[in-house]
UniProtKB/TrEMBL annotation:
ATP binds at residues 111-117. Gene3D superfamilies: Mur ligase, C-terminal domain, Mur-like, catalytic domain, MurE/MurF, N-terminal domain. Its cofactor is Mg(2+). Belongs to the MurCDEF family. MurE subfamily. It comes from Bosea vaviloviae. This is UDP-N-acetylmuramoyl-L-alanyl-D-glutamate--2,6-diaminopimelate ligase. It is found in: Cytoplasm. Carboxylation is probably crucial for Mg(2+) binding and, consequently, for the gamma-phosphate positioning of ATP. GO terms for cellular component: cytoplasm. InterPro entries: Mur-like_cat_sf, Mur_ligase_C, Mur_ligase_C_dom_sf, Mur_ligase_cen, Mur_ligase_N, MurE/MurF_N, UDP-N-AcMur-Glu-dNH2Pim_ligase.
Length: 485
């Protein structure tokens, strides 16, 4: 809770006409965090209705309530109360008042796959071009001074605005952030002053939360509503549903920076694979520019161009943005080459959804003169429908696919594996993730490539409500060290 006070009129303009001058000590949306004098915003959530916790917030000292529902009849008369149409929006706007500073230039990227990579690459481009830059998303907050891990891709509005305020205070002028579909749907970014947005692609994910794919796409395209009039939008023209994303941007009057093979602003003309790098020919402003991208994979080239597009949207010269790509460093746990054993290569990747698994296996296939081996699983308490789909992809695209556990959370790990294994008799099963990885490393021989997919940068395995320390990279390295005798 912050030391200073705010008036309710400042925090929630128009919501408390009679009590606008009343001051509160802070804003909370979780009753358990309510301190004396706070305003509690009751949110209708996926698991619970926040209105049920109004009494709890008051018992802990809250003196004002904002809710989507009418005033509870038994609420103490001394407590001020406002009913608003969209409590999540009200919360986000209030969070931006409580934590007022933001980096001057903030860009956001949405899409099913590649957001973390694009946010990181955009930060790197901004840094190369001389700006104090940060990125914020699944891998946490990253600046030139280091990184701080956070558990959500798009944090809740109070944490998000506290971070933006702190970054601005530290002198960060440029920020690239991820906009998850949950974050957009739940209005977590509505108080962020964005300069530009980007759309990558759309595949199957989060259908446990979004009722349909259309609803999922609509949530992503809310990003355009958050941009000021005339702010540019970067579209990966090669991504699924790019036409819909661009039609929605045009309808809202946003100019488009199209990138990719079908892009009109940064046009990818040719890609030549050179070991673990690739040589890109890109046309920008009528000129052909050659970029040596020190990263593997067609989709990483696409991500890099979206990042360059965001830098252009933020006012950088296209050629300068493209030239900065030659110094890009890969993101932890995204096609990360961890080690080699007996002429075989081990890679760790964050693919935990069908499109990503398909893309990563297709990307690694040309590197596998021998066998392509895949160890993967599916998270518990997440979209069940993707399990057999991922099982089929692994069976089709890998020579050997081992199904293992990946954050079973509150589900029965064996039951999750069974849903994946049902896709194909070709799949094998080793439940314990460390054992599965060790077994796969032991199979490596000349020309083989092993990809351990699903956890990427994660440092824990979530079993029940406990998170046990676990790192795919550490297990791979330890297995290699043990077997490389
Ligand atoms: C499904 C989902 O998105 N849930 C998020 C949502 O919680 P919710 O509002 O649905 O919470 P709820 O449990 O139903 O409770 C409703 C309200 O009652 C309040 N409450 C609850 C208990 C109590 O005693 N008192 C009280 O006041 C809660 O604080 C909440 O405000 O809003 C919370 C605050 O913003 C989030 O922390 C929470 O994320 C949960 C932990 C989560 O796991 N989210 C994941 C699925 C997520 O958001 N993932 C995306 C995408 C990831 C990606 O693909 O990259 C992300 O951005 O990370
Ligand atoms: N443009 C892309 N198209 C398809 N797959 C991709 C793309 N970019 C990355 N991937 C795959 O998706 C995985 C996750 O990449 P990244 O973390 O950059 O995406 P994300 O959108 O942030 O994912 P999440 O929503 O899970 O945080 C990568 O490890 C890779 O397997
Ligand atoms: N942000 C994603 C990450 C999933 C990572 C994967 N390891 C899993 O647990 O399914 C989610 O929370 O759905
Ligand atoms: Mg991410």
């Amino acid at each position: 809770m912050n030391a200073r006070n705010w008036s309710l009129g400042q925090l929630f303009p128009g919501a408390f006409p009679a009590d606008a001058d009343r001051s509160v000590t802070g804003v909370v949306f979780d009753s358990r965090k309510a301190a004396p004098g706070a305003v509690f915003v009751a949110l209708a959530g996926a698991k619970a209705d926040g209105a049920r916790f109004i009494a709890d917030a008051v018992a802990r000292g809250a003196t004002a309530i904002v809710s989507g529902q009418p005033r509870p009849q038994d609420l103490d008369g001394a407590i001020v109360f406002a009913q608003v149409g969209d409590p999540r929006l009200a919360l986000s706007l209030a969070a931006a008042v409580v934590h007022p500073r933001q980096p001057a230039t903030i860009v956001a990227v949405t899409g099913t796959s590649g957001k973390s990579s694009v946010a990181d690459f955009t930060r790197q481009i901004f840094q190369v071009l001389g700006h104090e830059a940060a990125s914020l998303g699944t891998v946490g907050i990253v600046t030139s001074k280091g990184s701080k891990y956070g558990s959500l891709t798009t944090p809740d509005p109070l944490s998000l605005h506290a971070s933006l305020d702190k970054l601005a205070g530290e002198g960060i002028t440029h920020l690239a952030m991820e906009a998850s579909s949950h974050g957009l749907d739940q209005r977590r970014l509505d108080g962020v002053r964005l300069a530009a947005g980007a759309y990558l692609n759309l595949g199957r994910d989060h259908l446990d939360y979004h009722p349909t794919v259309e609803d999922y796409l609509d949530a992503k395209l809310r990003l355009w509503d958050l941009l000021p009039a005339g702010a540019p939008v970067v579209i990966n023209r090669d991504g699924a549903f790019a036409d819909k994303a661009s039609a929605a941007a045009v309808a809202k009057g946003h100019p488009i920076i199209g990138v990719g093979c079908a892009g009109e602003t940064l046009t990818l003309l040719e890609v030549l694979r050179e070991g673990f790098s690739q040589r890109l020919q890109v046309r920008a402003q009528g000129r052909e520019i050659e970029v040596v991208l020190p990263l593997v994979g067609d989709f990483m080239a696409g991500n890099a161009l979206v990042a360059a597009g965001l830098a252009v949207a933020a006012g950088e010269a296209p050629e300068a943005a493209l030239n900065a790509l030659s110094g890009l460093v890969g993101v932890p746990g995204r096609l990360e080459r961890v080690g080699s054993l007996k002429g075989g290569l081990a890679v760790v990747d964050f693919a935990h959804k069908p499109d990503a698994l398909e893309a990563v296996l297709a990307t690694l296939r040309p590197y596998a003169a021998g066998r392509l081996i895949c160890v993967f699983g599916c998270g518990g308490d997440r979209d069940r429908g993707k399990r057999p789909v991922m099982g089929q992809i692994a069976a089709d695209l890998a020579d050997l696919a081992i199904v293992t556990d990946d954050n079973p959370r509150t589900e029965d790990p064996g039951a999750i594996r069974a849903e994946i294994l049902a896709a194909s008799p070709k799949l094998t099963e080793i439940g314990d993730r460390a054992k599965a990885i060790r077994h796969a490393v032991g199979l490596l021989g000349t020309g083989d490539v092993l990809v351990v997919a699903g956890k990427g940068h994660e440092t824990g395995q979530i079993i029940g409500d406990r998170t046990l320390p676990f790192s795919d990279q550490d297990v791979v390295r330890a297995a290699i060290a043990e077997m490389d005798q």
